[in-house]
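## Example record

The block below lists the input lines for one assembly entry, exactly as stored, with component labels intact.
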Amino acid sequence: MAAENQSQTSQSDLPCVLILKPPPSFALFGDHFLDSPKFQYLKAYESPLPLSQFLHTHAQSVQAILSSGGAPVTADTIRLLPRLDLVVTTSQGLNHIDLSECRCRGIAVASAGTIFSADCADSVVGLLIDVLRKISAANRYVKQGLWSSQGVYPLGYKLGGKRVGIVGLGSIGTEVAKRLEAFGCSISYNSRTKKPLAPYTFYPNVVQLAANCDALIICCALTDETHHLINKEVLSALGKDGVIINIARGPIIDEKELVRCLVKGEIRGAGLDVFEHEPDVPVELFELDNVVMSPHNAVFTWESFEDLCKLVVGNFEAFFSNEPLLSPVALDHLPQFSG
Amino acid sequence: MAAENQSQTSQSDLPCVLILKPPPSFALFGDHFLDSPKFQYLKAYESPLPLSQFLHTHAQSVQAILSSGGAPVTADTIRLLPRLDLVVTTSQGLNHIDLSECRCRGIAVASAGTIFSADCADSVVGLLIDVLRKISAANRYVKQGLWSSQGVYPLGYKLGGKRVGIVGLGSIGTEVAKRLEAFGCSISYNSRTKKPLAPYTFYPNVVQLAANCDALIICCALTDETHHLINKEVLSALGKDGVIINIARGPIIDEKELVRCLVKGEIRGAGLDVFEHEPDVPVELFELDNVVMSPHNAVFTWESFEDLCKLVVGNFEAFFSNEPLLSPVALDHLPQFSG
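Predicted structure tokens for the full assembly:
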């Protein structure tokens, strides 16, 4: 009993990290993966109180927030928390956090950094090969027992020699380029500014990039500028032999227009990990063999999840020990991607 | 009429290339893709005669054979054709041709050479990423509308850092190694002899290779020595976290044993383009999400098919013009692979 009391006392003395909604990883693994002896979690979603009331009640305790893509950190939330000094997100993308408000208040932000870049780039290549070479569709064909009754399966397209255009040459875009070079693809890119060290052709706008590539890979962050960046004009420049891959954020593409192009055969195919209204996916895509989809899990593997847990906990522990964050976000220089 | 007669006369004077069964590409594209003004085809499969009688009838005409994986060129066939001097196969694999008989008779053999190596290597990477990252399975999940109702999908495994073991470091194996290095995999291999120039770890036998890798890639030729090379012992050395990819020939793996391992979870998954009794596929595999299959089309794309047609016709034309073959097979040094 004495030990229990002592534990309770020391527990309540620990600094508080607010969680608005459980990150997706909690559902997969339980929440003890992010436990630490150096801080405690305050779980808003476990309280019967409405959020604003919950925040009022704990306003003086919350020093940090653990955030994830599905749980926005709005200016309203931030304003209710006068002692908030840190937001750590389990994502590489930051579009769910009001960064201006953080900047004004001097609140530090830490992200998943480049932890997902390799997995994300692997997914890009996997989706691209799948769409070009019809791997998922052929797998379905074989598993339906059609090979022996219906014979040869329609040919796919070669990856080698394809012109690949990358939108957003950040850490993921760079990893994608490195991989696709090994397949004999030629790489070009568009980003806000030309990268002096990148050995790839730069196109100052996305329409030009799309007009000069066979596969367009979306790796940029979702911002006001990139919302619906991939619109009718871009898709039309990509053309009927073009393929598009999106592992960044759904709203970067005008999804309605993309669906129309895919249904009409105005582009050759798509590999999509993200959607405008996740987890809702346009039903028109369900029947299309030239569309390969994944449920926003391009960033995640067992191995990267383990790395992420260490990074998230490490960021909070560093912060509460007055040490430098492990993966701080420079709020004036937002990264190219969103993972 | 005069022109037609003339055409018929000159057609019948052209040297004869026997086709026993139409190559798979004929079914896809029609047979005019391999036409040439310099020779004519004699199509055994279009004649009502039994094969031996057909061969007797045309014994003095046949100077060459166009062969493919599905149409064996046996010693019996060869012996019925005293003027046969050349066999051209549309495959990289040669296991359907009696090479000893060709060697004895001084019959030249030409193959698809390395035309399929890049496509094959791309398929290996596509299948490997698919199995590890569950791309086909996740695609099915999304297309069945399960994402919004059932939530997050089970995590896959990271490709980066995996130890990849290649069985047969020929042209395809080498292309696979080149690609997977760009993903951060470490490469080792087994082949009949150590390759002095290959910068990868050599294991003198397949069991050792399997025991030291996370993914085993089968890229060797099917010969008497490699038949059922991948047996219970090798699969057990690969172990429950191991993945196997086969784009070479079905009978290199003891398929019954592989199916048992997959059903029992004794290996993690498989990507299979080839099977022991194609086009029949073990039905036990139809229900397994960790098995991705393609209908022996890893070698083929529109682009490589076009290259193949040029090469096949080019080989015959060179031969009938007494020029060197474009892709001769050195019968004393059979290549590592089978495509």
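Chain A touches chain B through 62 residues (CB under 8 Å). Chain A has 13 helices and twelve strands.
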